Amino acid sequence: MESVQSVPLRLLVLFLLCVSKCLSLQITRLSIPSFVPNGSEESVLLDCEYTYSLKEDKKLVVKWFHEDDPNPVYQWIPELDVKLYSEKFKLDEDYIIPSGNDYTRSRAINILKPTTELSGTYRCEVQSLEGADNMEDTMTVYALPTSVNLNYSISDGVVRVVCEVENVFPLPEMSLFQIKPKTVAKSPLNDTELEYELVDGAYDLEFSTTIPEDDLPGLSDGPTFFGCSVEINGTEYSKEFKVPYFPNPVAEKQEGDDSDDDDDDGSATIAGVAPLIFFLSVLLLSLT
């Protein structure tokens, strides 16, 4: 049976172990912004706070890594005050923590004008002869689209709806929908396809679907709209774009008005004064 005297001794040992761990090398806080606008920030600070013991933690080294690259973005040896930088990143080499000391003042990295290529996971590693610790988090440098274009074409009895987005990062959440006549409800368009290309750190993409022309309302039923929603998660960017749908005879007539080419391949796109023709037609129908 355990004696009463041994209980306080065990508590003392546990306390000493806890104190020893708390005083040893340990990362206590990693400060990395989750979302940063592309190119619009003068600099972005990534900080790595840690505790250490001057007596035990000899040869302290702080390293920052990006994604799976085994080579550090930045390395600092406090005892020698030596700093090593990666050519991949443009860092403020003069930045120091205002409240830091000889072993903490250069622990952070200050990235100048971050662009989308610098998105990803960042890992801070702190090492000494007595121990090591690491912590990581993700930063996304986002780019809002420079243009969004929603259109459709009609060919061989099939309507193809296309939403084109240029220069966006990361890939946005998107949906296509239809607003039927005499309603404001959005009906999702399914069987969508996404094609995209990464160019200079941003995506150009095409989000599309096809619908049999016979499945769509005619002109006499009232106005029909196609819509596209674009949203970038983690940001406030969320927009919808709409375009009126004109059945094939109206669209073909409009194409003939806009082109001198007599060849007709059966396809059509909305353009020019087609919206005026459409709404005048709806108005006349409503008066009869």
Automatic annotation (TrEMBL):
Q: Where on the tree of life does the source sit, at the highest rank?
A: Eukaryota
Claim: Signal is one of the keywords in the record: yes
What Pfam families does its record include? ig
SUPFAM superfamilies noted in UniProt: Immunoglobulin (SSF48726)
Keywords annotated in UniProt: Signal
**Location of the Ig-like domain:** 42-140
What the entry lists under InterPro entries is as follows: Ig-like_dom, Ig-like_dom_sf, Ig-like_fold, Immunoglobulin_dom
The answer, when asked if Signal is one of the entry's keywords, is: yes
| UniProt-listed PROSITE patterns | IG_LIKE
Instruction: Extract the signal peptide range.
Output: 1-24
Name this protein carries in UniProt: Ig-like domain-containing protein
